[in-house]
Amino acid sequence: MTLVDTTPTTSTIPQGDTSEESQSSKFVLTLSCTERAGIVQAVTTFLFERGFNIDEHQQFDDGLRQTLHLRTAFSGPWDYAPERLEEEFRPVADRFEMKFDFFDETQQRVLVMVSKFGHCLNDLIFRWRGGSLGGNLVLVVSNHETHRAMAEAAGLPFVYIPVTPETKADAEQRLLELVDEYNIDLVVLARYMQVLSNDLCRALEGRAINIHHSFLPGFKGARPYHQAYDRGVKLVGATAHYVTADLDEGPIIEQEVIRVDHSYGPTALSTVGQDAEALALSRAVRWHCEHRVLLDQASTVVFR
Description:
Blueprint: E1 24-34, H1 39-49, E2 53-62, E3 67-77, H2 82-96, E4 99-104, E5 108-114, H3 119-130, E6 135-142, H4 148-153, E7 158-160, H5 168-181, E8 186-189, H6 198-203, E9 208-213, H7 224-231, E10 235-242, E11 252-259, H8 266-289, E12 293-296, E13 299-302
Parallel strand pairs: 5-6, 5-8, 6-7, 8-9
Antiparallel strand pairs: 1-3, 1-4, 2-3, 9-10, 10-11, 12-13
């Protein structure tokens, strides 16, 4: 848990204002449960009784599925931690049969996987270094050496893990070892052009995000932008989603669409598509790292 020092730096501030009691911790609560009366009141009462202030509150009442999804950001007593909040909140959660999580303000640790296309990696690095990604990049893994210089220039460790049909299982095991070694919270497939095994997808369930062009399932396989040009597409887009064993069919977090016309050749379509991919992926990573994405069966609720 990171403690936020709210003490001004001027020398005229009394010594008492630098005490631990003047410090504040920030947390996020996310929950989902069957919709019924009293849920929001129970949450706000729980926080009020412990001296917390609500900084941001969003909820979605799904009338079709009769469920409620909620995200509340709050701040208050410095001596709390997510584990203590979870323990004290348990009676409330049990009463409403809630699925819930508490998070502190520690940034999510992100591992990025990439192959030969580097536009998404470059965009993630740019946003991370500018402080707008929402998470902390800590490692780049690739099945090619192509982008080692890009990663290392940003101060990121680069691990080369070649993949062949014979070494695929060992390569995936090495990836899981790196996830544990670097204490990774989120794996981002930034145009990583390898199909993950079902076992690896299950191991990373809910904490791996992929990006692909939104022509699927229309233009599968190689050279999708050439296929799109041949068919005269008028929209180019990208989809960021959670990784599942069903290839490119995981719960969708974000999509970006850009209108094009007959004057766009394959190269221009590819350039526009890369822009859409980078934008959709960075949004998905930021929203996940800020705990704004709640899984709902095969779908998501995203509190932007």
